[in-house]
């Protein structure tokens, strides 16, 4: 098992620092940034994941580490697209700490990944304004308005342009675009998550697509 600094992205929140964890010498990243790409191989079979969810809910840290590795890449990408690189790491760590604390409420009515993803969206929406104020204070005089929502690893100029365009969308249009076109949510689901009407979701998606075309042309 990992020690605190290895376990999460940057474990500053003390609510989740399991006692008795030990570093793997070759994998300890104390003082360094944790890899957030997650599991790059085949997905874990669903029945194995369900077993890990049950174990993690009972306090098994190794089981939760496996869940973390499986899902961290998608959660981190979601946080980047909804907020930008500067706060995505903080939000990702908070989502998994929150997931650990709320595992007892997961009833298995949906897949764990679906539950985790919705938890992440709700957390990002509730925390974004606070984090924006903190970020603005910390980045005073550093041109914060130029920050871009970029992938953890950029593979091409096109990917850079696309992520830059997403990052420059107005906030509500970006939320709808990311949730609909990137994450695959329906307008009904988006309307419920964002507290808007279905018509507003559709109009914001249209606005986002028009702005994206203008940026990428």
Q: How would you characterize this protein structure?
A:
The protein is mainly alpha-helical and 217 residues long. It has two domains: 148 residues, Orthogonal Bundle (Rna Polymerase Sigma Factor, Chain: A), CATH 1.10.1740.10; 49 residues, Orthogonal Bundle (Arc Repressor Mutant, subunit A), CATH 1.10.10.10. The chain is 62% helix and 0% strand. The chain has nine helices and no strands. The N terminus is likely disordered.
What key phrases describe this protein's structure?
mainly alpha; elongated; disordered N terminus; Rna Polymerase Sigma Factor, Chain: A; Arc Repressor Mutant, subunit A; 2 domains; 217 residues
The rounded distance between the terminal residues' Cα atoms is: 49 Å
Share of helical residues: 55-70%
SSE order, one letter for each helix or strand: HHHHHHHHH
The CATH class of the largest domain turns out to be Mainly Alpha
- Contiguous helical run count: 9
What spatial form do the alpha-carbon principal axes imply? elongated
Q: How big is the Rg?
A: 18 Å
- Name of the CATH homologous superfamily of the largest domain: RNA polymerase sigma factor, region 2, helix turn helix motif
| Percentage of residues in DSSP E strands | under 5%
| Number of beta strands | 0
What is the count of distinct domains?
2
Biggest sheet character: none
**What CATH architecture of the largest domain do you see?**
Orthogonal Bundle
The pLDDT mean sits at: 74
Low-confidence stretches: 1-37, 140-156
CATH topology of the largest domain: Rna Polymerase Sigma Factor, Chain: A
Structural class: mainly alpha
């Amino acid at each position: 098992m990992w020690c605190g600094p290895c376990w999460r992205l940057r474990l500053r929140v003390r609510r989740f620092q399991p006692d008795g964890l030990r570093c793997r010498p070759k994998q300890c990243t104390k003082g360094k940034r944790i890899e957030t790409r997650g599991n790059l191989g085949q997905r874990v079979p669903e029945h194995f994941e369900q077993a890990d969810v049950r174990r993690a809910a009972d306090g098994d840290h190794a089981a939760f580490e496996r869940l973390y590795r499986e899902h961290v890449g998608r959660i981190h990408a979601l946080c980047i697209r909804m907020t930008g690189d500067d706060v995505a790491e903080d939000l990702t760590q908070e989502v998994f700490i929150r997931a650990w604390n709320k595992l007892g409420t997961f009833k298995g009515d949906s897949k764990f990944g679906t539950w985790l993803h919705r938890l992440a969206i709700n957390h990002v929406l509730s925390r974004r304004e606070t984090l924006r104020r903190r970020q603005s204070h910390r980045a005073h005089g550093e041109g914060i308005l130029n920050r871009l929502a970029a992938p953890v690893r950029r593979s091409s100029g096109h990917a850079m342009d696309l992520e830059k365009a997403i990052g420059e969308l107005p906030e509500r249009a970006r939320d709808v675009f990311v949730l609909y076109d990137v994450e695959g949510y329906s307008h009904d689901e988006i309307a419920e998550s964002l507290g808007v009407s279905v018509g507003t979701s559709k109009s914001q998606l249209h606005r986002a697509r028009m702005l994206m075309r203008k940026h990428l042309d």
